[in-house]
Amino acid sequence: MSLSPKPGVMEIDAYVPGRSEAPGAGRVYKLSSNESPFGPSPKAIAAYEAAEPALGLYPEGSARILRNAIAAHYGLAPDRIVCGNGSDEILTLLANSYVRPRDEVLFSAHSFSLYKIVTLANSGVPVEVRTSDLHLSIDDVIARVGPKTRLVYLATPNNPTAGYVSVSEMRRLHGALPQTALLVIDAAYSEYVRRNDYEAGIELVSTSNNVVMTRTFSKAYGLAGIRVGWAYCPKNVADVLNRVRAPFNVNISAQRAAVAALEDASFTDNVIRHNETWRAWLTDEIRGLGLRVDDSVANFILIHFPDSPSQRSADADRFLMTQGVILRGCASYDLPQCLRLTVGSEEANRAAVAALRKFMGEQ
Ligand SMILES: Cc1ncc(COP(=O)(O)O)c(C=O)c1O
After folding, report:
1. Quick one: angle between helices 87-98 and 114-121, nearest 10?
2. pLDDT by residue (tens digit) across 293-327?
3. Ligand 1 centroid to 288 CA: how many Å?
4. Centre of ligand 1 from the C-alpha of residue 159, in Å
5. Spatial distance between the Cα atoms of 93 and 78, rounded to a whole number of angstroms
6. pTM above the 0.85 mark?
């Protein structure tokens, strides 16, 4: 017998990150990874730098200062918060903890690819729920729930389609799950949403034993490089995550920078206001070029290209790269006709639209 990994592992298509280089182009605008054009708050940078004397010591392992800051900010109990090396880590640990071989894990088609990766890595069965014109119907999710369902990952807003699930639909889905299944609400982009019928999941987690909400400092807080995420959990799930996580999974600089980022509310408000203004502008301008752009509540938009020679998304992508504009190809999300564009700085947004206009004008 030779060495082989667990069943499912070799079926994994490794995660494809957004590209960051446009060889040959002068000025480069990276709009491929949903990062913040502002980066972190200056206060978070100062806190990061101030951590220097502590670099030789292990950090406090439970990220207590950060859990306390998050708890105070949102009015939550700190012992129900678990921090991670990005929310990726928490989404992974949940699968590692709960998914047994042949258990089913439900998630939407055209959603964050990590869900499938962590399911297969645990020899689980991915169940992708089809969408209708990129809209996920909760009835269709409920129809796929069965005795083998162990986890349901739901990104709201969803990456890359940029839509969301309303709080009443989320409650309805939860009501249809058996107590043996865990609903994971991945709210990585929730800070950007301004809709009356949206709630990131706090209420549902507070009132049930089988719902977890995951959040991140990578997007609105501009700390993607330092890797900090967190989960708000029922006590039983927090206990499980604290058993399986690495002992010092959030480094000291990350803990301190995230606390400072959370405290700098006016900086974050500005990031969100900028996003709203420019998301609307990008959507209008690109629709004005004759391309389909879906309504977005997040910090990115999804652009559809026609299936005609030299107008396809791959043609646009190639052309945009020559202009230094890097978008995200969506083939790995099973949307090969689309490119995803992150809302960037004013300069980057204008450069993206100018490049797209040139591309469309050349058809
Ligand atoms: C829907 C969704 N969830 C989670 C993440 C992971 O974010 P992080 O691990 O940086 O917290 C991403 C990152 O792109 C995402 O798009």
Report:
1. 30
2. 999 999 999 999 999 999 999 999 999 999 999 99
3. 30
4. 9
5. 19
6. yes
